[in-house]
Amino acid sequence: MLASIRFLFLFLLCAVCTSCGSDPVAAPERVREISYELFPSTHELGASDVLRITALSADGRIRFAELPATLAQVEPGDVLLAGISQATPTGLLRVVLGVEEDDACHAVLRTAAAPLQTTGAC
């Protein structure tokens, strides 16, 4: 009799546990959005601007086949911002140290790493 009661108890326990164990309904994923406003001295390069980059040097020089209109007024102290692309595999967050022209008349920006705070992103 005791074995029957144990069996019945275990059966009921398993039945209750498995019947109440439904998968919780997954909450719909919320899209995370970041709002930001860039400082006027921050120049965000678009896809067409990034395509004009012909070389990124280890010393921070960025060579353009032709300087994009976005950078027509760039000057030392300005910040460049660009996303990940084939030309910028890690993106760009650089401060401009100087604007030059090489022997082939290509625009060259001398840059250094810039902290995120210099962009004005809020």
Taking all residues together, what is the mean pLDDT?
A: 81
Helix fraction bin: 10-25%
Strand order of the largest sheet: 1-4-5-6-3-2
Counting helices, strands and paired strands, the structural category is: alpha+beta
Radius of gyration based on Cα positions: 29 Å
Question: Uncertain segments of ≥5 residues (pLDDT<50)?
Answer: none
Q: What gross morphology would you assign? A: elongated
- Tally of strands: 6
Give the tags:
alpha+beta; 26% strand; 122 residues; six-stranded mixed beta sheet; single chain
Structure commentary:
The protein is elongated, with a radius of gyration of 29 Å. It has a six-stranded mixed beta sheet with strand order 1-4-5-6-3-2. The longest helix has 19 residues, at 2-20. With 122 residues, the chain is α+β, with helices and mostly antiparallel strands. The relative contact order is 0.18. Helices cover 19% and strands 26% of the residues. It has a domain at 52-119.
